[in-house]
């Protein structure tokens, strides 16, 4: 079996008011994105890495790789308007039978074990979606209605990697884009496949706000890089 | 109008495998709980503070207060079996008309502004529940069924303070305990009141896991205590 990782770098840094996209921010002396690629490179299944990046960032990334002497093999392909389009572009580069992990560029703390489990479960069940349960109570508030408590035990906060047999992705990404496609699981689910959750990792945080970067720096030191 | 804060310290530290309950762990040189009480003490409405604590921790807390020369006025009353019972015990100590903020002992980073807004909104609307929206996609998985995507835009992760006109709490806490009462909003909602959400604060984290304590330490330093 052939294994792939599509690393999706969609962020423009809007939530942090940054000039540079989040995936390029430095974490422990090098861009976040390099940590992410290293994690996949450490997986024993030796996945082929496809990095999907906004075309205007390709040169910048190339320069960063030279500056940091970054040698991990990966292809860089061009991103699309939405995350959905970027993943679809990534898929075009995968031929034949494969297991494909899709991962946020800004989740640099993903560990090799979770990646491995994700590939194994997807190979067996069709897909594997990393998820953790919320610590907080959760409510739902629909337009014009009062909010309503949900049962916390039934809820899952979804992470990446989200890993699939490539056939599921090929079929799912033929669909037209919809607003509610906030991740790959939602796209694949809409194409008619059952979604399988895999216990994620609380340290596998998504760097969205400034404080997340500080948290990541802390967690990274603990991880002993 | 009279303002109260019921600080609920339910934790036994199980999730961190600790001998000491989470609220007593040191954060920046003093127990988490002291930070929490200080935040309420800084509110301009000058709320009266009621600390609900397991009876076996009262003496330990007293000693901590002496050791740290902690002078913020507060009553200490005894906790119950469930968080629900603890809040009910706290309520018994409130007479007459009042606005009551209920707050987790292990959310020490709550800021005075959120507390103030919470009292003001509850006074106007009946209650005010601090909440933030999730960054991650969220799924629901009911027993024996496949998981299903929820619309992230409609979801809220609930924090504390949860603040109420005391009449709502008095009526709500006459109900028998139910498993789905994971917070006060769910208790009050079940008594027939509409729940009003107030924008919370991403820094107002609940210290549940070891990494949260480290995060809190970071955030505290930024806050400039």
TrEMBL record, chains A, B:
Pathway: Isoprenoid biosynthesis; isopentenyl diphosphate biosynthesis via DXP pathway; isopentenyl diphosphate from 1-deoxy-D-xylulose 5-phosphate: step 2/6
Top-rank taxon, per record: Bacteria
Site positions for Positions MEP for the nucleophilic attack: 152, 206
Enzyme class, broadest EC rank: transferase
E.C. number: 2.7.7.60
CDD domains (alphabetical): CDP-ME_synthetase (cd02516)
Reaction(s) the record says it catalyses: 2-C-methyl-D-erythritol 4-phosphate + CTP + H(+) = 4-CDP-2-C-methyl-D-erythritol + diphosphate
Pfam families the record matches: IspD
UniProt keyword annotations, A-Z: Isoprene biosynthesis, Nucleotidyltransferase, Transferase
Gene Ontology terms: biological process: isopentenyl diphosphate biosynthetic process, methylerythritol 4-phosphate pathway
Gene3D superfamilies, sorted: Spore Coat Polysaccharide Biosynthesis Protein SpsA, Chain A (3.90.550.10)
Presence of keyword Nucleotidyltransferase: yes
Site (Transition state stabilizer): 15, 22
Entry GO MF terms: 2-C-methyl-D-erythritol 4-phosphate cytidylyltransferase activity
Family to which this protein belongs: Belongs to the IspD/TarI cytidylyltransferase family. IspD subfamily.
Matching HAMAP family: IspD
Record function comment: Catalyzes the formation of 4-diphosphocytidyl-2-C-methyl-D-erythritol from CTP and 2-C-methyl-D-erythritol 4-phosphate (MEP).
Annotated protein name in UniProt: 2-C-methyl-D-erythritol 4-phosphate cytidylyltransferase
Lineage, opening ranks: Bacteria, Pseudomonadati, Bacteroidota, Sphingobacteriia, Sphingobacteriales
